[in-house]
Write a structure and sequence with these properties.
The protein is built from two helices and no strands. The protein has 43 residues and is an all-alpha fold. The radius of gyration is 17 Å and the shape is elongated.
């Protein structure tokens, strides 16, 4: 059995988002969601 450096097939999420041209949009949605969650905890 040979060992592989990268045992997973396909691409990472970052690579996929870069290829699709939406990393900024995805990151902005994540940040907005986190802010809304933190605000709901404070309320």
């Amino acid at each position: 059995m040979t060992s592989r450096k990268k045992p997973h097939w396909g691409t990472t999420l970052d690579e996929f988002l870069d290829k699709e041209g939406i990393p900024g949009a995805a990151m902005a949605e994540i940040v907005i969601g986190m802010l809304a969650w933190q605000l709901s905890l404070e309320m």
